[in-house]
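User: Can you recover a sequence for this backbone? Please restate the input before giving your answer.

Assistant: Of course. Working from this structure:
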């Protein structure tokens, strides 16, 4: 079995008891001469060739907007003065060093334009490849040999003259991520030697060795193992990423309203806002149970897609029908979740609807409940449509008993009396996409199973 090495400006020791990495030794970073294995002494490292600034950028950095920002890994940013020139590696064969950067708090769509690392190449100048992986929250360490695919890769010819320096590599094809990516895993791969410093201090931080990983097939580590698991808990990897907003950011608000009494529905209007840019994008939405459930008829299930064109209004709305009743119950909640963004990122993807209980004594009337009039009640079985006028969609509310047998039919006629669309409304609230209709006045005809017909006019605008 081949050996794992440390490089540093002085010769150091690595205990030989590590079960995965036998006969480990220290190598002088400049001469690459091996220190004889089997010793059990350890010399404290000294500070060597460490720079405090990003003086060694490679390629030509892309133009970055003033809103670009840097995120460091859990150890530290590589340009924050690591206090050692250690470089953990397996001699001969491929080395892969992996470390995560927490990106769960980013808003909207972002491009990863640059990765910075601290170089310690043992006096060589090997070619390296930087791979980026997105972890959606599963916690598995990405590894390309295990079926993971990098979201971006960039090769770079390192230079021994940069040893001890913070090196920043610009991606010619940046990775695009949003808040659904909880961790950005940075993997630096080289087929010969090592290029990444793994110091024992960085800007006053000490590593844990539990979130820095090495892959070294020639040293019996074909899949990622933590530094700590093989005895290097006192070393860590300093990586950082530069992120730049790359498109619209989508977010949804929360809504709190009283439930309403007696019969009908109360409309909860959720606003979904596009920010950062006015570029075209789309996002899916769907309701989800909380303490309020569709099984208990607390609210109506709703799914659909919101589309933004270039320019125009940045706010689109989702209307959810909450059933009124006179049942005494605690305040309840449900959710509207955003998913599957296209050409945008999700900043806040969960809107919470809080249904306030308002079931109490009737405002007027006698002991006959059929004669009571309640606040916010709907006293007639009416069909309503909203918004009106509309650019892209309309919502239809029909009496609850009309929709019980899934036989409510809707037909749209233009102002010439020509039929342009038909559909079934199987819920109390129906959603109709009118984005493809030309501008003009239309009649929506609702027909229930008993032959009752209601006609509503609406205006389609551009």
């Amino acid at each position: 079995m081949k050996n794992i090495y440390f490089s540093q400006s002085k010769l150091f020791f690595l205990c030989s008891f590590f079960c995965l990495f036998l006969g480990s030794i220290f190598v002088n970073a400049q001469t690459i001469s091996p220190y004889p294995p089997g010793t059990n002494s350890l010399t404290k490292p000294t500070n060597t060739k460490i720079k405090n600034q990003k003086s060694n950028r490679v390629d030509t950095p892309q133009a970055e907007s003033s809103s670009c920002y840097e995120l460091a890994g859990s150890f530290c940013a590589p340009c924050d003065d690591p206090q050692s020139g250690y470089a953990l590696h397996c001699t001969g064969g491929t080395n892969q060093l992996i470390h995560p950067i927490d990106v769960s708090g980013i808003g909207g769509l972002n491009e990863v334009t640059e990765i910075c690392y601290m170089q310690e190449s043992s006096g060589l100048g090997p070619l390296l490849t930087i791979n980026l992986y997105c972890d959606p929250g599963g916690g598995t360490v990405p590894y390309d040999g295990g079926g993971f695919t990098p979201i971006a890769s960039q090769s770079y010819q390192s230079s021994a003259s940069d040893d001890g320096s913070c090196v920043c590599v610009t991606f010619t094809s940046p990775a695009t991520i949003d808040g659904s990516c909880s961790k950005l895993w940075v993997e630096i791969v080289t087929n010969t030697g090592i290029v990444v410093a793994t110091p024992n201090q960085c800007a006053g931080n000490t590593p844990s060795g539990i979130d820095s990983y090495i892959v070294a097939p020639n040293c019996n580590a074909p899949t990622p193992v933590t530094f700590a698991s093989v005895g290097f808990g006192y070393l860590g990897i300093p990586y950082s990423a530069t992120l730049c907003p790359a498109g619209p950011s989508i977010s949804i608000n929360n809504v709190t309203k009283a439930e309403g009494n007696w019969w009908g529905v109360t409309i909860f209007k959720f606003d979904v806002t596009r920010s950062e840019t006015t570029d075209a994008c789309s996002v899916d939405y769907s309701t989800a149970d909380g303490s309020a459930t569709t099984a208990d008829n607390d609210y109506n299930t709703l799914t659909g897609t919101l589309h933004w064109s270039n320019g125009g209004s940045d706010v689109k709305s989702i209307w959810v029908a909450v059933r009124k009743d006179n049942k005494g119950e605690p305040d309840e909640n449900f959710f509207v979740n955003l998913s599957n963004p296209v050409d945008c990122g999700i900043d806040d993807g969960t809107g919470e609807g809080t249904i306030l209980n308002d079931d109490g004594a009737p405002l007027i009337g006698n002991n006959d409940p059929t004669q009571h009039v309640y606040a916010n009640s709907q006293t007639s079985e009416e069909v309503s449509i909203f918004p009106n006028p509309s650019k892209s969609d309309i919502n239809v509310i029909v009496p609850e008993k009309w929709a019980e047998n899934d036989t409510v039919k809707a037909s749209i006629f233009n102002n010439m009396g020509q039929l342009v669309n038909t559909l079934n409304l199987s819920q109390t609230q129906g959603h109709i996409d009118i984005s493809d209709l030309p501008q003009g006045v239309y009649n929506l005809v609702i027909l229930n199973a008993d032959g009752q017909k209601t006609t509503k006019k609406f205006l389609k605008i551009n």
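That completes the design. The chain has no helices and 30 strands.
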